[in-house]
Specification:
The chain is an alpha/beta fold. It has 14 helices and 31 strands. 49% of the residues are buried.
Length: 593
């Protein structure tokens, strides 16, 4: 077993890949996977003819009907049934479902299984050791199947499953032993399909090979044992910020989900009202800027830790109040440019952070890492990715818009750089007048002068007919908007000067909406140029326009970016990983292992 996160099947779950039957891999191939079965399967007699596997099976690999796709009954799909009492290999086509290899054995823990077909003859290896050779198929062609977990009425697998690999070669015993306990990259020679099944959330099992045969998960559930191991039911943490809006409000909702799964109770305190309060959460939320009320809340709730985001004054007041729990200062974004972070530390933060917090927390944003490593070499610092729950916020299918849409998310203020977005949009509309611009903003924040300048610029660029402004949209609606933008042939354009993290970019990517962005530092964790998104140089309007046109016209590149963007977010920003990192931080501050 390689991971603490895997898929569990309870007798009704399946994973269905795009192909379902891998007809191009014929007669010689290898199927590998790790399993922990929890139910017995029916043992049948080995044979090369007839029908025997129609009842009581626990199909990890479902033997698909060989005529699937093109009606060729001389081809048989191969499947593997696994129970606590043994392993059986089945082949399936018209009037044909025999077990060509049967091994009765006891399986009680995680076990690696490899079925190697060499010129239509299967050989079984268990944990890298030779177990048995089966019968040569009587069919003209045998091919591996692309459905995992079972099929009605023949039977469904029960137990844990991960690391499914299908090779277009007959792997040797040495090759199996060398790689069975190692993660692969997906680029290995002869590797036709590779599903780690370690996403931890969502309904997609990603194929990490270039073939991209992703699977749709139905009925199976994610087992995230890391969160269970690290859980602490008695821990309560307070998170504070100025206003419930923007990236911090999104982060708080996301980590509420992540930390609740690990048994941590989360409370939130904001010093003023904000539009994010419309996003209902099942947790206590306090709204007050009264110092005495804040201190009374802290004393009453007896928090194990308090995470103060950005507010130096509040951090100092909490420390001076005599609070004795873990006090953590969190940095998520600073100023209008990358250089401001250093100015903020030297002009404002240095003495307070040195004396009044136990640790500093920040995401894996290069300019933040550089500054805090430089000025606080001896201070406890924790640096890990924020998280995102892709089971609740994901791609949705809606009627396709006839005109391409370019989206933008932010506030009408300097750092979000709305001016460049309007210029980019205007240039693209000159070349393609049907393009629509959708801007999503919080109109309760920002200066009046900035609003006047914004409206003046819209008129000056003659954008009114192509521009729609959406103010203060509830968070759940954004999944719909991003999905529509992506399917329209458009993209999200992020023009920020600097981002600490950049949740809008992440959210667009998870909804299959490709992103064109400035290299605003905080989005480097999401975007790999021309792989998971596109970059342009801040202020370079001509470059932005050319990259945008390429993103809209190059369908192959666009679809690659959409697919790989989703996979990247799911792999690196899981709630389970955030909970693990957060708990390790708290335990470290408490001096616990």
């Amino acid at each position: 077993m390689l991971h603490n996160v895997f898929l569990t099947f309870e007798g009704n779950g399946i994973v269905t890949t795009h192909k379902q039957l891998f007809a191009s891999v014929q007669n010689t191939f290898t199927i590998e996977f790790w399993v922990k079965p929890e139910a017995a399967h029916r043992i049948n007699t080995e044979s090369t003819r007839g029908v025997s596997g129609t009842k009581g099976q626990r199909f990890v690999i479902t033997p698909m009907h060989g005529a699937y796709g093109d009606g060729d009954p001389s081809r048989a799909g191969v499947g593997v049934s696994v129970g606590i009492n043994g392993i059986s290999v089945y082949e399936h086509t018209t009037d044909h479902l025999p077990a060509t290899l049967v091994l009765e054995t006891s399986l009680s823990d995680w076990t690696h299984i490899a079925v190697v077909y060499d010129n239509k003859t299967p050989t079984l290896y268990i944990n890298g050791e030779f177990a048995k050779k089966g019968l040569t198929s009587s069919k003209r062609i045998v091919v591996p199947s692309g459905v995992f977990g079972g099929v009605s009425p023949y039977g469904f697998y029960v137990g844990g499953l991960e690391e499914i690999r299908i090779w277009s070669t007959a792997r040797t015993q040495a090759e199996i032993q060398q790689n069975m306990s190692r993660e692969l990259t997906g680029k290995e020679a002869g590797l036709f399909g590779y599903w780690r099944l370690d996403e931890g959330a969502g309904a997609t099992a990603h194929d990490l090979t270039v073939n991209g045969n992703d699977g749709v998960i139905t009925g199976a559930n994610w087992n995230t044992s890391q969160g269970e191991i690290l859980s602490d039911k008695s821990m309560t943490v307070l998170f504070t910020f100025f206003v419930p809006s923007g990236g911090i409000e999104t982060l708080n909702r996301q980590r509420l989900y992540a930390l609740n799964q690990a048994g941590i109770s989360c409370h939130f305190l904001y010093t003023q009202e904000g539009t994010g309060l419309q996003n209902k959460v099942n947790a206590p939320i306090f709204i007050t800027n009264n110092h005495q009320e804040i201190i009374e809340i802290i004393k009453k709730e007896n928090y194990d830790a308090i995470v103060v985001s950005s507010d130096l004054l509040l951090l100092k007041k909490i420390k001076e109040s005599g609070y004795t729990g873990s006090l953590i200062y969190e940095v998520q974004g600073l100023g209008f440019n990358k250089e401001y972070a250093e100015q903020f530390v030297t002009d404002h933060a240095y003495p307070i952070l040195q004396s009044d917090c136990d640790a500093i927390l920040y995401p894996k944003t290069p300019h933040l890492i550089s500054v805090f490593e430089k000025y606080f070499p001896a201070k406890k610092k924790f640096c890990f990715h924020n998280c995102f729950n892709t089971t609740e916020f994901q791609y949705q299918v809606h009627p396709k818009e006839k005109k391409p849409i370019i989206g933008w998310v932010g506030r009408i203020e300097e750092n979000k750089n709305w001016k460049d977005f309007l210029l980019i949009g205007a240039e693209l509309i000159k070349r393609s007048p049907s393009i629509q611009l959708w801007m999503f903003e919080d109109n309760t924040l920002g200066e009046k002068s900035e609003r006047i300048a914004f409206e003046h610029r819209i008129n000056e660029l003659n954008l009114s007919k192509n521009l729609t402004i959406y103010a203060n949209q509830p968070h759940h609606k954004m999944a719909e908007y991003f999905s529509i933008i992506g399917d329209s042939g458009g993209f999200l354009c992020s023009t920020s000067k600097v981002e600490g993290f950049g949740y809008a970019v992440l959210e667009a990517m998870i909804c299959r909406c490709p992103v064109l962005s400035t290299d605003s530092d905080g989005v480097r964790s999401f975007i790999i140029h021309n792989e998971t998104g596109k970059f342009f140089e801040l202020g370079n309007i001509n470059q932005a326009v050319e990259e945008a046109r390429n993103l809209m016209a190059n369908i192959w590149l666009r679809e690659k970016i959409r697919k790989q963007g989703v996979a990247h977010i799911k792999e690196h920003f899981s709630p389970e990983k955030y909970a693990e990192n957060f708990l390790n931080m708290i335990y470290s501050l408490k001096g616990e292992n």
